Amino acid sequence: MPRKFKIQISNPCHEEWDRMQNRVNGKFCGSCQKSVIDFTHFSDRDLRNWFAANQGKSCGRLKPEQLDRLIHVKSNFAISRFKPSLIAASLFAFLSFPKLGNANISSSYPTFQTDNKKSLKDDVLKENAEDDFVTIRGKVIGKEDKLPLIAVSIRIENSKIGTTTDRNGDFELRLNRKDFKNKVILDIRYIGFESKELKVNLSKNDVIFVKMKMDQSILGGLAIINYPTFLDRITQLLNG
Q1: Looking at domain 123-212, does it have CATH number 2.60.40.1120?
Q2: Vertex 49: Cα angle to 47 and 52 (nearest 5)
Q3: Is pLDDT above 70 for 82?
Q4: Is the pLDDT of residue 207 over 80?
Q5: Of 7, 31, 56, 196, which shows the fewest CB atoms inside 10 Å?
Q6: Domain assignments of the chain as residue spans, ordered by start
């Protein structure tokens, strides 16, 4: 499949996505009896790889910005990047590197003396240090299917503190009370879903449940328009 292509939906489908049956890569449309692939989370490279492996007609769900535009995926490897002089220098450095077979490597580790008896003062200081921190716990699910969302970006607004959800849609943020007031704002983002801002009261210890709504999407049969590269055109000319 050429690296340049365009995706079009000539006849959009008006079936409701939320009422379709769940499938591994999307849903099943009971009206047309076809599987509908959910491409809304796909990157340009993911789209190219999928259509290269699936040449037949497909029904899909895509975001408007994924349609009717030229998708150009650059190759990960290009031999032109490696100059002969650079290859020769790398080979010379590898051959001249000393062998470690007969080397004597000695390791030394610092030693520490510990006292098993902890003073009452240490315990009090530790408890006070724990009081300086607060933990925000939550779970992110899709509003339509109620399924957990994985790798959702959770960040504290106007800070560099952030995390992502795990396979169960759960997340956890540990904050120092001295750096924040009683409330913080969570900036929640996920590809294919509408971003959310959520105010959190640090004085409460409740688990936060977040429901994210999918962005506007378009359903329908897909038409793939391939654009040959310069090399493809040269090959066509040579082959007549």
Answers
A1: yes
A2: 105
A3: no
A4: yes
A5: 56
A6: 4-63+217-239, 123-212
